[in-house]
Amino acid sequence: MLGSRLVYGGPGWIDFVAFQAAGRLALAGDAAAAYDDERLRQVQAEILTLPEEALGGYLGWLNPPHFFFVVIPSALLSYAHGWTLWILLSVVALALGLRAVMPGAPALVAVLALPATLFCLGVGQNGLLVAALFAAAVGLLDRRPVVAGIALGLLTIKPQFGLLFPLVLALTGRWRVFAVACVTAVLAAGTSALAFGPEPWPAFVAQLGSITGRYLANATPVLPKIQSVHAFLVHMTGSPGLAVIGHGAVALAVAAVVLRIWLRRPEGPEEARAAALIAGAFLVTPYVWTYDMPALGVAALFLVRAGLRDGFLSGERALLLVAVLLPAVIVANDVSLHGPAACLVVLGLAWRRDRAWRRAAAFSPAPSATAS
């Protein structure tokens, strides 16, 4: 949940430097200072060997304290080596996560080649880790519920994506996954408090409360990089109240569609449900950045898997391509609506895949009885 104005004041000043600065503060026994913008900025200047006034923007740390465990290994190294390690570990995490969806190098290469993934790697963000956790949580939901629950619990590093999961798990009776996810989240939070002290948690909550005022309430230059209906409406109208109403209406409609797909009986194809849940998770939150979008490639990969097994529907491949390429337009033009549009395309394709499966099942002849 790193927020950035993406106004670079010196060579190499990209999002990853905030990760490394936070990791160094945690190693120094002052993890709570990572939530102090001025202190974090000072450490960033030290890492880049630049005067603080040369940093012309803001790169903040808004992640929960258990994310310190993820950034500390890179903080042990120099900036360049730490960034290299971060990229390598991100790719490894993605490869492991994609095994739950479609094992093999082609799937990994396809997701790595997406514009959102390349952008995420370019700024040293955590979108690949988020995509890996989505892949494991949704892809292993029924096959390995304990592993899925652990992945979902770790996804609390981005708590804004967890709005739909509790509803889906509770309403479909997947209580084992629900319980494991809750235990994992509590253990992660408790372990971070033991390792870094209790102080980072109040500091994190305070920073969390500032997100609306800092990023979502005003039509600032950074707002178009946030990919949500809320951000688009604030940018276009300048009215946070109207944005809340508009985004809320869209979020409720999206939640209804996702729950409809998951609650229909018999359950439709796993791929349609998985793609709908991932796309829905992105649409219902008002706080999504461009670098979070690699997970949309995971949702598309589920639908590709269904197409390879059962045959692609008319126009499905072209629409999937449009969805995963839309983030390239986001990077080029800074428009908040391209991300939600891409997610809506994937959600629509998931609905269509589920509907096609039901129509095929309805017209399939019933198995004939065999005389004994």
Summarize the entry for a quick read.
The protein is mainly α and 372 residues long. Helices cover 66% and strands 0% of the residues.
Keywords:
single chain; 372 residues; mainly alpha; 18 helices; disordered N terminus; disordered C terminus
Report on the biggest sheet: none
Fraction of helical residues:
55-70%
Q: How much β-strand is present in the residues?
A: under 5%
Number of strands: 0
| Uncertain residue segments | 1-11, 366-372
Number of domains: 1
- Average pLDDT, rounded to a whole number, is 89
The number of helical runs is: 18
- Rg calc: 21 Å
Structural category is: mainly alpha
Rough outline: globular
Task: Give the quaternary arrangement of the chains.
Answer: single chain
CA-to-CA gap between the ends? 63 Å
Please write the string of helix (H) and strand (E) elements.
Answer: HHHHHHHHHHHHHHHHHH
Q: What does the model show?
A:
With about 375 residues, the chain is an all-alpha fold. The chain has one domain. Helices cover about 65% and strands about 0% of the residues. It has 18 helices and no strands. The protein has helices at about 15-25, 35-50, 70-75, 80-100, 105-110, 115-125, 125-140, 145-155, 165-170, 175-195, 200-210, 210-215, 230-235, 240-265, 270-285, 295-310, 315-335, 340-365. Helix 15 (about 270-285) runs antiparallel to helix 16. The protein starts with 15 loop residues before the first helix and ends in a 9-residue tail after the last helix. The relative contact order is 0.11. Residues about 1-10 and about 365-370 have low confidence and may be disordered.
